[in-house]
Amino acid sequence: MRMFCFHCRDGEDGGRLRGIHRPAHLDFIHANADHFVIVGPLKRGDGLIIGSLLIVKAEDEEAARAILAGDPYLTGGVWQSIRVDEFTPLLGDWA
């Protein structure tokens, strides 16, 4: 199984939209926990949440994107941009 890192940046209205979609997003994450290596918010130095980092286990990038397709943060417009890269750990807990 390969790992794909999703670096998701919020749009200008991200804070308000996060508030609306957070409960459904958390339900989605927990319901699909077997697909995730790690999930969490990205924060500025002052603590403001500006995005999300998700590492997804999947056969390929298309399958990883399909897993996230139903995430309320994606469907609800919280994330303005998403960068996806394959991640191959070399050292540490996931290596």
Task: Give a description of the structure.
The protein has 95 residues and is an alpha+beta fold. It has one domain: Dimeric alpha+beta barrel (Alpha-Beta Plaits, 2-Layer Sandwich), CATH 3.30.70. Helices cover 32% and strands 38% of the residues. The protein has 3 helices and 4 strands.
CATH superfamily: Dimeric alpha+beta barrel
| Topology order in helix (H) and strand (E) letters | EHEEHHE
Indicate the structural class. Answer: alpha+beta
Oligomer: single chain
Average pLDDT reading: 96
Report helical residue fraction: 25-40%
Task: Give the beta-strand count.
Answer: 4
Question: Proportion of β residues?
Answer: 35-45%
Number of discrete helical segments: 3
> Sheet bearing the most strands, described?
4 strands, antiparallel
Which segments are poorly predicted (pLDDT under 50) over 5 or more consecutive residues? none
CATH class term? Alpha Beta
Layout of strands and helices, then pairs:
Elements: E1 2-10, H1 14-31, E2 36-43, E3 49-58, H2 61-68, H3 72-75, E4 79-87
Antiparallel strand pairs: 1-3, 1-4, 2-3
In short:
With 95 residues, this protein is an alpha+beta fold. It is built from 3 helices and 4 strands.
Pick out its properties.
95 residues; alpha+beta; Alpha-Beta Plaits; four-stranded antiparallel beta sheet; 3 helices; 4 strands
